[in-house]
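testing teh design pipeline on a random one, pls ignore if ur not involved
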């Protein structure tokens, strides 16, 4: 016969005198990550290794300190790493649609931007002065003077030849004009048209003859014009280079050793020489009153000179080590950057100055931390990040362009080499989904850092728990905890862990409890947080969430939900289950009944048949059939039609924690022995009849205790749990007090035989050498009933299964 559990095992009490201080003011704050040695080792490895693909997935439940640990490690590690380079985008003068990316030493980008702005500003002043000088005018006149003399000689020669034919040559806006002459008088067009036809025909004939002679002169004139243009261009270039050459030389001397910059400075010089008119003429802008108000913002822009600016995308000025970036909104654009557009006078425009960096740009050469669930909320973000990590190049593209949705031409900035360590923070199940569903994921994220939800409850860790409480109080200016409160928080840690030998590492939940207890301490103007405040915080937190639980308790008290807490019944037992409502879980007792009859259907799960039972519950019911077959069907067929159901269950049932409960009800129905209704049961069972551990044991026991207390504690009430769950007990003090007073008891059980013997008061009976069971035992009565059913099935010629 099983015995009631000793009262000291109902809850792992932590005496206040073991805290080692009167209150947390006597302790030293700590920034240590508590209870996560495995995760810290994995993090340290993943952050230090530099091989490709060794990015990190930090797995753990919220509140276990994942983010805090990552931040702590990165802050320390980043300081030891060298500063990373700056990056800028500049105009590609040969193809403006593909801006150039240039790498610069840390802190240089802002200097280059300022120097280029200063250069352009100085060039806009120096060039007009140079071209307005008398020296330039003299050199221009000198360069063009000889050409003018040659041009005059050609005109004279051509004119002499024309005069012999009765024509004269004059310079017009379009070049040389041939005019007929009669009586030494050039004819106007009107006078020419008034001549007799024969005369006009003769003049036109002479002109045709003259054209052949004049073509050579005209060709020489065009060559002179070309020479003049080339001479002016050479002169202009010489003057321009003289005016700004020292500025360009200064830029080359300062930045000449940076790859790509000398070529860029040369391209700037070339573009300026090709567009001198832009620098020499005053900017022409429309009258402001003619511009609608919404467009006047663009009047002040020096659009023509914008192409000489420098767009700083990464600036590490003032950095003390490698960058660490936490991206809280990991959309595609926030991660990988974008090329913005704006509308000017109804036209959509963009250029290299509108390129905006993403967090990957900012973290390049350092570390990027992303919450993985947020990453999957944004289209294309995950694929874009993978592409960047796989190719080790950072491209700025429109996500729609990648998918083939955008066909309009836009910017395609040159890619930037990428070297970044990405740390994803998420739960273990997301990591599992990625491993199974994304073939790229295992190659890109080779390191997994698992944050455990529990740690051992030993002297070292309880001391760290207290130090954490001290740190929390000092960091957030809370009242300190006295030793009774600290002891209660340690017990609360075991309650969260659902294990007497463990402490929860979900410090966010612990911190929330302390903040609420601090509120009650402030209301009472107490100098410290005491056990009373911790207890009130715990109870108030439950009270705010347990409306549904209270309604169910009320329905049980009023007899709407049928639960017996006294007497005996055949084929009926009280089962224990857990309902979860978001952040709150509570135990709900349910009546489980079994009915049996002759048949070949076996055990029918009514919950499953009505589509209200989950697969795990169905598995538990099928295991019952295996147990019956192994124990009772070795010498006869099972001719059984049994039905199992959770009475008044309307929300579905899942889990196998009630399989032992259902088996007890079934054995009672087969044997005809009544079961004590004052005892509730939980525990799963295997085919060998061994009772196995289940979850939520504290909530289940507390739920049945509430029902018993509401109906009146008689001293014979209690619950039967798997013996392996005793170590998980962290029950409320009121249950411990009831147990001490002899009003409620918990009974650990290891086998079905132990359980049925306790519930019925009849010995279970062990199989004898001949295969039978001792007469009068539970197993004897069950075996006898099953044999009778088999004989009845044979007599009625029921088909055997």
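output:
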């Amino acid at each position: 016969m099983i015995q009631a559990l000793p009262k000291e095992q109902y809850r792992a009490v932590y005496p206040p005198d073991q805290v080692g201080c009167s209150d947390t003011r006597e302790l030293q704050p700590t920034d240590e990550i508590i209870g996560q040695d495995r995760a810290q080792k994995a993090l340290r490895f993943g952050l230090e290794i530099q091989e490709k693909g060794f990015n990190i997935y930090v797995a753990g439940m919220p509140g276990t300190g994942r983010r805090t640990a990552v931040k702590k490690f990165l802050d320390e590690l980043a300081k030891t790493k060298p500063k990373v380079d700056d990056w800028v985008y500049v105009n590609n003068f040969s193809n403006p649609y593909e801006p150039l990316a240039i790498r610069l030493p840390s802190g240089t980008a802002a200097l280059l931007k300022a120097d280029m702005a200063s250069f352009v500003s100085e060039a806009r002043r120096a060039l007009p002065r140079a071209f307005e000088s008398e020296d330039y005018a003299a050199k221009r006149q000198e360069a063009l003077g000889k050409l003018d003399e040659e041009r005059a000689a050609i005109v004279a020669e051509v004119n002499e030849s024309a005069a012999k034919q009765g024509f004269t040559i004059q310079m017009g806006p379009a070049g040389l004009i041939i005019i007929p002459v009669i009586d030494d008088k050039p004819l106007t067009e009107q006078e020419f048209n008034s001549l007799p036809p024969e005369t006009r025909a003769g003049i036109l004939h002479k002109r045709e003859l003259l054209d052949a002679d004049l073509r050579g002169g005209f060709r020489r004139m065009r060559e002179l014009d070309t020479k003049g243009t080339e001479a002016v261009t050479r002169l202009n270039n010489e003057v321009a280079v003289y005016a700004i050459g020292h500025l360009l030389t200064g830029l080359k001397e300062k930045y000449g050793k940076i790859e790509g910059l000398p070529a860029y400075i040369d391209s700037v010089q070339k573009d300026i020489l090709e567009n001198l008119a832009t620098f020499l003429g005053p900017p022409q802008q429309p009258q402001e009153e003619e511009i609608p108000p919404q467009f006047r913002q663009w009047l002040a822009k020096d659009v023509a000179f914008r192409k000489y600016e420098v767009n700083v995308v990464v600036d590490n000025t003032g950095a003390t080590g490698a960058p660490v970036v936490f991206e809280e909104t990991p959309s595609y654009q926030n991660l990988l950057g974008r090329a913005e557009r704006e509308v000017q006078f109804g036209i959509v425009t963009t250029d290299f100055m509108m390129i905006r960096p993403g967090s990957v740009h900012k973290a390049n050469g350092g570390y990027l931390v992303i919450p993985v669930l947020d990453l999957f909320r944004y289209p294309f973000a995950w694929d874009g990040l993978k592409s960047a990590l796989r190719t080790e190049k950072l491209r700025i593209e429109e996500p729609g362009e990648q998918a083939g949705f955008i066909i309009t031409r836009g910017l395609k900035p040159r890619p930037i080499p990428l070297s970044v360590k990405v740390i994803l923070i998420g739960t273990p199940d997301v990591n599992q989904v990625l491993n199974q569903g994304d073939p790229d994921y295992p190659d890109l994220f080779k390191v997994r850092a698992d944050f455990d939800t529990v740690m051992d409850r030993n002297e070292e860790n309880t001391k760290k728990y207290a130090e954490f409480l001290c740190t929390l109080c000092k960091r957030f200016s809370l009242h300190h905890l006295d030793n009774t409160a600290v002891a209660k928080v340690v017990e609360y840690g075991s309650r969260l862990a659902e294990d007497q030998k463990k402490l929860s590492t979900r410090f966010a939940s612990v911190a929330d409890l302390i903040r609420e207890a601090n509120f009650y301490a402030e209301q009472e103007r107490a100098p410290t947080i005491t056990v009373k405040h911790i207890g009130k915080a715990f109870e108030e937190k439950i009270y705010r969430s347990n409306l549904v639980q209270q309604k169910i308790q009320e329905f049980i008290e009023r007899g709407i939900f049928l639960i017996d807490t006294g007497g005996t019944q055949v084929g009926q037992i009280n089962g224990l289950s857990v309902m979860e409502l978001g952040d709150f879980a509570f135990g709900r007792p349910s009546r489980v009944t079994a009915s049996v009859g002759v048949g070949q259907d076996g055990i029918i799960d009514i919950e499953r048949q009505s589509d209200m039972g989950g697969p795990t519950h169905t598995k538990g019911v099928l295991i019952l059939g295996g147990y019956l077959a192994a124990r009772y069907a070795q010498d006869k067929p099972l001719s059984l039609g049994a039905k199992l159901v959770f009475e008044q269950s309307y929300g579905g049932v899942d889990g196998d924690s009630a399989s032992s409960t259902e088996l007890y009800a079934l054995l009672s129905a087969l044997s005809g022995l009544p079961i004590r209704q004052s005892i509730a049961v939980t525990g799963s069972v295997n085919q060998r009849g061994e009772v196995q551990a289940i979850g939520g044991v504290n909530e289940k026991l507390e739920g049945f205790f509430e029902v018993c207390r509401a109906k009146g504690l008689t001293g014979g009430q209690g619950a039967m749990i798997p013996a392996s769950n005793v170590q998980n007990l962290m029950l409320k003090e009121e249950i411990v007090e009831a147990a001490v007073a002899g009003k409620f008891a918990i009974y650990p059980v290891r086998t079905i035989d132990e359980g049925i013997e306790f519930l019925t008061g009849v010995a279970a009976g062990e199989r004898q050498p001949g295969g039978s069971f001792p007469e009068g035992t539970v197993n004897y009565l069950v075996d006898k009933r099953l044999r009778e059913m088999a004989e009845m099935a044979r007599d009625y010629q029921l088909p055997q299964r």
